[in-house]
Structure formats: structure tokens, C-alpha cells
Write a structure and sequence with these properties.
Length: 286
Amino acid sequence: MRRLRLCLIFKHLMHTNKQIRMKTIKKSSVVDQIVSDLQAQGNVSIAEHSAKFFRTEKGGYGEGDRFLGIRVPNIRATAKKWNIQDVATAEQLLNSEYHEVRFLASIALLQLYPKHKNDVYHTYMSHIGRGINNWDIIDTSTPHIVGKHLLDHRNAKRILNELATSSNLWHRRVAVLATFTFIRAHNFEHTLRLSEMLLNDSHDLIHKATGWMLREVGKRDVSVLNSFLDRHAAIMPRTMLRYAIEKLSLSSRTSYLAVANVKKRKKMKEEENSNNAKKRRKKKNE
């Protein structure tokens, strides 16, 4: 009797393992088919242009990224065609070396989010800086996944702050773009806080993102934007300021730029005085 039970258990385990293997093969097959579909749509000329546009050269923010050369509408159409139904398949696609495959994966994840909120959120967060590693992918998907997930999350402030203070560029970009969802809900707290935290950030992609989000705040309540600018326009990175004031009146734009110019001239004068002092000391010691 015991031998019979062991035989039945063994058969059950063999059947289960076979099912797991079949599912894995099936998923891999779907992933391979999707990748092959995208590869067939590739265009060398577009790929070369994309590689330059997304700064894939050594030292660029997209260093090492590879492109097939496919326009975004075609990637979206391909995503719609395959209609990915499980997070595991999307995650496998996120591991691709090709930018367009990862872009398609991000679209699949935002489409899967309503039915698989936690799985999609944790998969997305675990791939920031890897599969989620360029501004177009982040800008397309972050507000619809990270932003939505944190909208009513009790730890939203802590999570956003951790992302914003990361040394990884893409973590910081995700933090800023996630606040777009809060802006749409007329909650500007996180955008204003992160924009202030990132005033001294050295990367242009963060200047652009924070300036863009501040502009979105201004579209909904210009007084909130003006209050932020009144406090910080003089020290804001030029790109951040220009993005933020884009929709303001000509007189307001001129005024805020003038404040920034005064600060710039003052800084240049300080640097000039410092250099002159160094030259005088050097000459005195000779």
C-alpha cells in the first residue's frame, strides 16, 4: 500500500514538472516570436539615428543600448497585436538587449497593471536601471504604474524620496515622473518637494523632468508654480527654469529669466574675482 502511494506521488510530481516545463517553453516561444516580429520590422537607418539620439556612446546616459530601428507607433501596434496576458512574459522581454523590445514590455506592463497591480509594480521597480533604463520608457509607463500605485500608498513620500536621492539617474527620473499622477489628482506636494530636493542635481535629464512637472503644476494652478519660482528661480538650473516657465506670460518669463541672469552674472563675477586673487597670490610667491 505504501509502495502504491509512493508511485502515485512520483507520477504526480512528474506530471507537475512536465506542466511547468511546457509552460516555460511556451512562454519562451512567445517571447522569441515577439522579438522576431520586432526584428523583422527593424530599419538600420532609424536604428543608427536612435543610437545617437539616445546617447548610446561611451559615457552617454544610454551607453551600450542597442536599437532595432522601429518607430513608436509600430511598437505600440505590435504590443496590441500580441496582447500579452501575463507579467512573466513582459518581464522576460524587459531583459532584452534591444531598446524597442523593452519599450514594448513597458507598454505590456502598464496594460496589465489594472488586473495585476502588485506583481506589475514590484516587477517594474525591480527593473529600474536595467530594463527600465531610458527616459522614453520611463515617461511612457511610470505615471501609469508607479504613480498610480503610490497615489493612495501610505509610504508614498518615503518611496519617492528614496528614488529621488538614488545615485542612479533612472531611479531619480522615475521619482519625478511618478508625481505626474499626483499632479493630475491636484496633489502638488510631492512634485514641489522633489523639485526642491533636485535643484542641485547635475543631470540635464532631471532638469528637464522637474521643469516639465512644474509646468504641469502651473497649468492647474499658476499661483503654486509662481510661489515656487519666486523662491527658487535664481538658483534653478537654466533648463529646469525654461521648461517650468514655458506656458507663462511673456512678461513673467522675462522676469524670471532676468532673476536667473542676475544670479549667473554674480556667479561669473565671483569666479572672476577668485581667479584674479589666485593669480595675484601666485605672482607674489614667484
